[in-house]
Amino acid sequence: MNDYFALIKAAVDVRRYSVAPYSSFSVGAALLTRDGKIYTGCNIESSSLGLTICAERVALFKALSEGERSFAAVAISTSTGEACPPCGACRQVLLELAGNIDVLSIYDDKKYTMLKLEKLLPKAFTNKFIKRDR
C-alpha cells in the first residue's frame, strides 16, 4: 500500500480555503500524479448553485491545465469529520479523465477509507470514440 500521508495532509489543509456560504459543507481534495506531484482544490459555491464546483474537479482541472495526464490517487476531506466519497459528477469526471485511481475518503482529518474509483462508479458511461492515453 502507498504511503498517502502527504496527500491526506494536503486535502485536509486546503479545505480551509473552501467557499461554502450556502451549504456550510467545506471540502478539500488533493490529487496525486504518478510522478508524485500533488494538486489541491476546494469546493467553491455560487448563488447560482449549478455553477458551484466540487473540490475534486478543481484539483483535477488544475492538474490537467498544467499538462498532467497520469494520476494515482485522490484524497477528499470534509468539514463533517466523516468519510465522504466523491459525488456522482466527480466520480464520472475523475474516472473519465484520471482513470481508475485510488479514492481516499478522509475522516477525523487523518484516517481514511480507500476504494478504487471503478468500485464507486460501476458500469460508468464512457465514450468509446475518445482515445485515452491511460
Poorly predicted residue ranges:
none
CATH fold call:
Cytidine Deaminase, domain 2
Could you tell me how far the N terminus lies from the C terminus, measured between alpha carbons in angstroms? 21 Å
Radius of gyration: 14 Å
Quaternary state of this entry equals: single chain
| Helix and strand pattern | HEEHEHEEH
Indicate the mean pLDDT: 93
Q: CATH class, anyone?
A: Alpha Beta
Range of strand content:
15-25%
Major sheet: 5 strands, mixed
Count of the separate structural domains: 1
Summed up:
The chain is an alpha+beta fold. The mean pLDDT is 93.
Describe the overall structure.
This protein has helices spanning 5-14, 55-65, 88-98, 117-120; strands at residues 27-33, 38-42, 71-78, 102-107, 111-116. The chain is α+β, with helices and mostly antiparallel strands and 134 residues long. The protein has a single domain, classed as Cytidine Deaminase, domain 2 (3-Layer(aba) Sandwich). A five-stranded mixed β-sheet has the order 2-1-3-4-5. The radius of gyration is 14 Å and the shape is globular.
